[in-house]
Design a protein that fits this description.
With about 100 residues, the protein is mainly α. It has helices at about 1-25, 25-30, 30-35, 45-90.
Amino acid sequence: MVKVMAVLRSVFLVFIFLYALKLLPLALLVSSDARRGEVMVPFTKVETVASVTWLAIGWIAFEVVVGWVHVWAGGKLRDRAAAKKAARAVASPPAAPPRP
C-alpha cells in the first residue's frame, strides 16, 4: 500500500506540474514584459490555476487523513498484539523442573 501511494503521489505531482506549465508557460514568467509588470493574464487562466491548486490541497489533505488513520490503526494493532503476547505469557504454565 505504501508503494501504491508513493506511485500515486508521483503521478499526481507530475500531472500538476505539467498542467501548471501548460497554463502558465515559462516564457510568460521570464519575459521582459513580466519583469516590468505589464503582463495581462485572462481571468479564466487564473481560475483554472486556482482550481488545480485546490485539487492539490485536497489531495494533500486526503493523504494526511489516510496517514493518520494508518498510524492510529497501526497503533491499535500493535497494542492488541502486545496484549495477546502478554496474555499468552501469563496463561502458559511454568515449565516443570527436570527430573533427576
